[in-house]
């Protein structure tokens, strides 16, 4: 009799245990649900993926790919009774195009992704089994490609956007939301997933993308050039030869190796002594009445003023979309002695400076 009573109590307790599990909120018989380890509550598992800055990645190429992994750390997957096959859904299957607007420039980037698995079966064991985050994480390969056109899925004027990459769902959820756009219409951000009451959405992973293309700029190191010595008589007779110089130019700030801005390189000088013939010299000169006249590669005098002036001679120019790497590597400028006051012309040194600057359209 005692044995029978003990066995009966054991059966009743076992049944009570099953009953307790079956009425726990957000748990269902024969399912696998994420559990937030810190709070102990069931909730949609959220993945943290490092932010990606595309500006430098797309500087010299039209596409960039990386393989990363979802990171559901802080969660465990608890499977009750019969276990479950969970679907790994690509949130941007078929492509996801973002229009980034910076100033008056629109850049279209198409994102695609591939997942290392399509689904996984998680067994419940005898009654229940807990899986660590590493067991239900998956690798994700993300590709960003510069594209042309006007069609896009989302626009950003802030230079950042959240891309929904992975939905970890039950089979019934996947049937209800059969396309990536349908999934995104329900949940497309971590914040929305965190507040989600969709029972069949088990996990969500996204990545924050930032893209603010760097404006094309060029650097010219300070240069010092010397003209050959000559005589005052030679200058007065107009027999001096022109001297040409090559000035190295280093440009950066490209998108797919192309310039992101249209610009001109122009010059100005605070040493102008003859504004009609654009002759320069400064107080460091020991000669009198003599200066320099600068000219371009066709021997025409450079036109410039004492400050920024869009009517000044363009020493070089580039349009947006031009090949930045090979199009502009140097400037050719020449200089010649020039008398601007013949009545006071005396021998000595001649010193003058110009400043070269970029003018954006």
Automatic annotation (TrEMBL):
Biological process annotations from GO: cell adhesion involved in single-species biofilm formation
The keyword Signal appears for this protein: yes
Compartment list: Fimbrium
SUPFAM superfamilies referenced in this protein's UniProt entry, alphabetically: Bacterial adhesins (SSF49401)
Gene Ontology cellular-component terms listed: pilus
InterPro entries given in the database record: Adhesion_dom_fimbrial, Adhesion_dom_fimbrial_sf, Adhesion_dom_sf, Bact_Fimbrial_Adh_Pro
Extent of the signal sequence: 1-28
Pfam families, per the entry: Fimbrial
Annotated Fimbrial-type adhesion domain residues: 213-361
Domain of life: Bacteria
Keywords attached to this entry: Fimbrium, Plasmid, Signal
Family: Belongs to the fimbrial protein family.
PANTHER family per UniProt: FIMBRIAL SUBUNIT ELFA-RELATED, FIMBRIN-LIKE PROTEIN FIMI-RELATED
The protein, known as: Fimbrial protein
Protein source organism: Pantoea piersonii
